[in-house]
Amino acid sequence: METPFSEQDNAATDNYLATEITEQELPAVPANLNIDATAAIKKLVEHTEKVIRGKRRQIEMVITCMLAGGHILMEDNPGTGKTVLARTLAQCISGEKEGEHVLFKRIQFTPDLLPMDLIGSHIFDDANKEFIFKKGPLFCNVLLADEINRASPKVQSALLEAMAEHQVTVGETTLQLEKMFFTIATQNPIEMEGTYPLPSAQLDRFFMKIKFGYVDEVTELNIYREYLDIARNLVQMEQVLSMRDILNLQQQAGEVFVHEEIVKGVSNIVRQTREHQDISLGASTRSGIALLKCLRAYALVNDRTYVIEDDVKDIAYAVLDHRLLYRNKEGRLKALEGIINKETDRLAKLKLY
Description:
The protein is α/β, with parallel strands linked by helices. Helices cover 47% and strands 15% of the residues. It folds into 2 domains: 1-31 and 254-353, Orthogonal Bundle (Helicase, Ruva Protein, domain 3), CATH 1.10.8.80; 33-253, 3-Layer(aba) Sandwich (Rossmann fold).
């Protein structure tokens, strides 16, 4: 499984993607990926849909982010199903011991939350007359950081190391998190009083940011009719994949083939965001690497062992938008979308597939 991109690599980031483009020897489309992978992913999507109705695309985006080894930020109004989606996903995955779910933790972020409430703290063991470390909720497999923008910057920064390095530091001790560690964070775009907007450094740790949105009228009517069955489905959710399966799928996602022209397309999009007149802060090289990882995972979710041009159009906005700073409202509406459309049109003319 690929390790997350760390801050210490920043000195070499400007050369990283260029090296990957010019020097990487890309093989033919691999035929040796596990055929059961796509069947397993399809089963995970379908079981999640038993609870989260009418949101297949959002479910696929969350699973894509998980298989890419990243974390996802969901922003929308209360009551649209963000929290339930996180819980449902965890219910569908079994842990190390048979019959148990992966370890799921939900943290409600509030202004009075402290870093130790996430990481844990040393407590005195009266029996052994010594201090022992009691792990906090960060030591889990699926973490739901609910309304993350309501906590202070000090608490938000406690997540930075965990999300980027899969580890936390307590005093002079560094502790590794679980091998499978996936953060689903939510934030509420309304009632902004008493909130702390996430800094760019933290937003950059999220591979994707998506909006959940309301379901269509027919789906919403069905939810009202069947809400008791939906709640029952959540309680009785079948475990369709194991944690080992998820780690295996993450590894397989890293083996998905990306054509050299698509890699160049990613580079072009990233560089054009830095040169656009309506964007004051463009995408970093880490953004391009995150996009490549998500493209590979998205292809796997869509039953392919190779990335196509449409994949770039489908997910590039979700991967890059939250990492940019725009000069004006018009730029936010049109700049990135225009850059992506221009590059995907170029790729479509090449007729790679």
